[in-house]
Amino acid sequence: MKATFVCEGCQTECERLGKRGRLPRFCSACRPKSYGQPYRNRTKEWAEYNALHREERRSWAREWRKAHPDERNERTKAYRATRPETVRAWGRAQHLKMHGLTERVVAELYLAQGGECAICHEPLPLEKMVIDHDHQTQERRGLLCSACNHWLFAVERRDEWVTSAGEYLASPPLRLLMVRGGLNNRERLQAQTVTPASLESVQPPTFERGG
């Protein structure tokens, strides 16, 4: 049932259009042009005050957060618990702002990649994709899954990692140990059961990789 009120102008009973807030004083036909002007004036004055004292207010906010860490954490937890959708939307907007992209550009890029990671080609929803960029030139390159983005970052930081990984796969240390011991993998596993107690008396062998 909609709430009703009596208009102060025409003295007729009217239904409130909105669902929340206090009841209005006038109907749409009798509402004065200046109705709500004091609120608009206060809003304008508050915006001007914020523009003039922005750094001062930010400094005060930083000092308050530093002096009240527990209260700030409790407020943050309560806000995140009651507004999860708002928090996710805000985080997504901040992420796009950091990369200088818009929702439309990211959506078009997602469709251009066929809805999959650009490296491993695993189909993923857009929410699971990560925006990849060059950490040297800051160029935005594409959408990747979190695993490919992580390993690509590791490879870019250490160029020798790829060579070292290739050498490891070509000659794993355990394979070298089996060959130097004169037994293959199957015979070694059948002849000895590895337990924590049996490892106490084992001395690690030394060998050279490659060659």
Please characterize this protein's 3D structure.
- A hairpin with a 6-residue loop joins strand 3 (130-133) and strand 4.
- With 211 residues, the protein is mainly alpha-helical.
- Among the domains are: 45-82; 86-157, His-Me finger endonucleases (His-Me finger endonuclease fold).
- The protein is elongated and about 100 Å long.
- It has helices at residues 37-52, 54-67, 69-82, 84-99, 103-112, 146-157, 160-170, 173-180, 185-191, 196-199; strands at residues 4-6, 13-15, 130-133, 140-144.
Write the layout of secondary structure elements.
Layout: E1 4-6, E2 13-15, H1 37-52, H2 54-67, H3 69-82, H4 84-99, H5 103-112, E3 130-133, E4 140-144, H6 146-157, H7 160-170, H8 173-180, H9 185-191, H10 196-199
Antiparallel strand pairs: 1-2, 3-4
Average pLDDT over all residues: 79
What string gives the helices and strands in order? EEHHHHHEEHHHHH
The total strand number stands at 4
Q: What is the CATH third-level topology name of the domain at 86-157? A: His-Me finger endonuclease fold
Number of helices: 10
Low-confidence stretches: none
Rg is 33 Å
Q: Share of helix among residues? A: 40-55%
Q: Describe the largest sheet.
A: 2 strands, antiparallel
- How does the overall form come out from the CA principal axes? elongated
Question: What characteristics describe this protein?
Answer:
mainly alpha, His-Me finger endonuclease fold, two-stranded antiparallel sheet, 10 helices, 53% helix
Short summary:
The protein is mostly helical.
